[in-house]
Amino acid sequence: MSTRPMFARVAFIGIGLIGSSLARVMRRDGLASEIVVASRRQETIDRAMELGLCDRTTLSAADAVKDADLVIICTPMSTYKEIATAIAPALMSGAIVTDVGSVKAPTFKSLGAALPDYVHFVPGHPIAGTEHSGPDAGFPELFENRWTILTPAADTDPEAVERVAALWRQAGAKIEMMDPHHHDQVLAITSHLPHLIAYTIVGTADDLGEDLKQEVIKFSASGFRDFTRIAASDPTMWRDIFLENRDAVLEVLSRFDEDLTELKRAIRRGDGDKMFDQFTRTRAIRRGVIDADQA
Amino acid sequence: MSTRPMFARVAFIGIGLIGSSLARVMRRDGLASEIVVASRRQETIDRAMELGLCDRTTLSAADAVKDADLVIICTPMSTYKEIATAIAPALMSGAIVTDVGSVKAPTFKSLGAALPDYVHFVPGHPIAGTEHSGPDAGFPELFENRWTILTPAADTDPEAVERVAALWRQAGAKIEMMDPHHHDQVLAITSHLPHLIAYTIVGTADDLGEDLKQEVIKFSASGFRDFTRIAASDPTMWRDIFLENRDAVLEVLSRFDEDLTELKRAIRRGDGDKMFDQFTRTRAIRRGVIDADQA
Question: What is the residue extent of each domain of chain A?
Answer without folding.
Answer: 7-178, 182-291
